[in-house]
Amino acid sequence: MKRKQRVSPMIYFDNAATTIQKPPEVSQAVAQAIGTFGNAGRSFHTPAMQAARAVYGARQEIARLAGLQNPLQVAFTSGATESLNLVLSGLIRPEDHVITTVLEHNSVLRPLYQTGCELSYLSCDDRGMLLTDRLPALLRKNTRFVVCTHGSNLVGSVTDTGAVQSFCHENGLGFILDASQTMGSIQTNADLADVLCFTGHKALLGPQGTGGIIVQRDPGFRPVKTGGSGSDSFRRSQRTTMPDIFEAGTANAHGLAGLAAGIRHLNYLGMEAIRRHKQALLTAFLEGISNIPQIRLYGSHPDALPVAALNVGDLPAEETTLWLWENRHIATRSGSHCAPLLHRFFHTEKRGMVRFSFGLYNSLEEVETTVEALAALVKKKG
Amino acid sequence: MIQNEIILTFSGTSQAIQAESILLGAAFPVGVMPLPGDIRAGCGICLRLTEDTADTALALLREVVPVQAAYLRMLSGSETRYLPYPEEVK
User: Which pTM was predicted?
Assistant: First the structure.
């Protein structure tokens, strides 16, 4: 007879990468959509109209969440990476100068590099807070845009968008905000910037393959992705009005039905209550690890997004994350988190960091278990 | 069966769906049909309204969604004719 192995339930602290536990309504909406939807906007029959109405329903949910009057200011994409590629490639020319920051994810940096534009980088302090008072020193004659994250995916610092927006207004610059980590996590209004790019599969609790672009002020987009839209079929070029300019091809109506369900669930629970819950998890985690002197915490602070990045003793990050997974079934993320400039700032390019990111369905007990696990790791290897 | 109705055309499908959402929200009896070949419009679908509700519906949409054009759809035997609807909608 086989001995029964005790398997501890997984503790999932990789919510900044994606949330894996979704409200049941999300999978129900997707399953129903897959069995019934036609192609949104391509015909008038019931299956096509069901899909079109679901896509419009998702626009309405995003618009409500972001404080937008017109849901057609929301265009859908496959996620924040596609959104940023479409926006940045559609706006920036090689002769332009763009100000970005050391907090950025590669979904911002690589599209920027690909444009061939001149770049300047706004730095941050040891907490990961951007030094926005240094923006004027980066200004050049050909500066056209500021492109920055709303919240760091690595250390959780939240950008003072008011300061960036004032700088942009004073100097006639466009302001593009990457809201991948903030939409659904903290209040993210459309008026924070001219253009916001977001993803659906993180704090919004939608399926992977959903995301979008919110345009508060059109800085003069050129179409990047072209193709069928169900409109103006005899026209040779893509329509340049929202949302068609970003939506060539068949919409992910199945996924968007799930995204709308995810947002409705967030609204049902209350955004502020969710924020407080995640904040309590982060605070408990930070307090817990503050008693373990061998832990080096990077940048995070109690007002940040529910994200903490650290290293344990002299251990490489991958050893810590591997030990937590193999011994305690705790899922974290090590490595460079697609944020090369911030790792360079903290001199962790080689070693990496271990990121813990907390979500709606995590509990204080899970945080306590994880702090105990880190203490045990220190005792064993530290 | 409705003999005469008003159809509304739009520049794009998103605008048509938005208009339908607004009209359904206000309890208008609104239908959808493919854009007739005799009519040029951006969007390949158009909305159908009963003639008696068209003016109120157009007034409701006026400040929110641009209607590209409106037509009176007249069924006469096997023939269907589309006449520009007299109300100013542009």
Answer: 0.93
